[in-house]
Amino acid sequence: MQEMYFSPPVNMHTRLNRYSSEALALAQDPEHLLTPNNSHLIYLLQENGDILESLDQIVSLHQKESEAKVHRLRLLEITSGLVILITLAFLGLYIFRPLANTLLMERFQLENANQELSFLSSIDGLTGIANRRHFDQFLNQLWLLATHNREPIALILCDIDFFKAYNDTYGHLQGDECLKEVAASLKGSLKRQGDFIARYGGEEFVVVLPNTTVEGALTVAETLRVSVESLEIPHRLSSITPKVTISLGIAVGQANLANSPTPLIEAADKALYQAKQNGRNCFRLAEA
Questions:
Q1: Active site residue: 203, 215, 222, 232, which one?
Q2: pLDDT tens digits for 213-253?
Q3: Do 205 and 247 form a contact (C-beta atoms < 8 A)?
Q4: Does 203 qualify as catalytic in the annotation?
Q5: Closest CA to 212 of 130, 134, 285
Q6: 263-267 contacts, C-beta under 8 A, 24 or more apart
């Protein structure tokens, strides 16, 4: 604006000063000098239109400059927005996306590791079947389900006959191999999807048969006994037959909320003891 005032040919600063001086002088003239021929009045009338026109030009020019500045600011705003969008796209494509993929992969690996850890914590490391901890969890869950459905549960405890003598004769490494073979044979003898087998401890195994009657449990027990005997694993110190055999105790009960599965396990354990007392390589059914 200052440049417009002082730049020729407009020279508005000088003209406005002169115009103000003439107007002041006219105001100070006596009344008898206020005639159409008054020099101050004549100047003011002549300059009035020119000054107004010049002021209008100055305003128009200033308005154009303002509009140009606004336009440049809008272009700058649009350019800045585009730069931000391009930057964000770059970050998303080359930084955030690979980072997200990495985090997703790490989460997937962590979930797999947790699942594997959970699986390993429920499996017996030697035989590859369920361990005692898994058995306890399974039986408690099945007990609740059988209570709701009013279904019987059969439980069979299996014990390798004279296993201590087997270990003493053939060594612990061969004893471990024997445990693996017996576990695999017992597991392979269970045909229903819901049937469950676990290593109960030492040379003992436990089989759980959901929704199974006494007759069904007796049939499965005989199948288990025969499957182990058919392995023909030598056992020269066995007092009943020169091969590895098992004894079995069977208990069948109706699940209910008034009881826990513990009495069923205890009944099967007593039946197993009776099988051992009655010659081994056989099974006994717990009294109802």
A1: 203
A2: 999 999 999 999 999 999 999 999 999 999 999 999 999 99
A3: no
A4: yes
A5: 285
A6: 264/153, 264/155, 265/139, 265/155, 265/157, 265/206
Across the beta sheet with 283-285, the strand order is: 196-201, 204-210, 152-160, 246-254, 283-285
Closest by Cα among 261, 267, 265, 258 to 286: 267
Task: Please tell me the distance from the alpha carbon of residue 97 to that of residue 277, in angstroms, as a whole number.
Answer: 70
**pTM exceeding 0.70:** no
pLDDT of residue 116: 60
Tokens encoding 156: 């069979």
Cα–Cα separations (whole angstroms), residue 135 to 96, 122, 129, 182, 252: 46, 8, 10, 18, 17
Beta strands 196-201 and 204-210, pairing class? antiparallel
- Which single residue is written with the structure tokens 């005639």? 35
130 strand-pairing partners: 123, 198
Residues 66-108: tens digit of each pLDDT = 777 777 778 877 887 777 887 777 767 777 667 667 767 777 6
State how far the Cα of 211 lies from the Cα of 282, in Å rounded to an integer: 23
Say if residues 16 and 51 touch (Cβ distance below 8 Å): yes
Q: Cβ distance 252 to 213 under 8 Å? A: yes
pLDDT at 247: 98
C-beta separation of 248 from 156 below 8 A: yes
Distance CA 22, CA 36 (A): 15
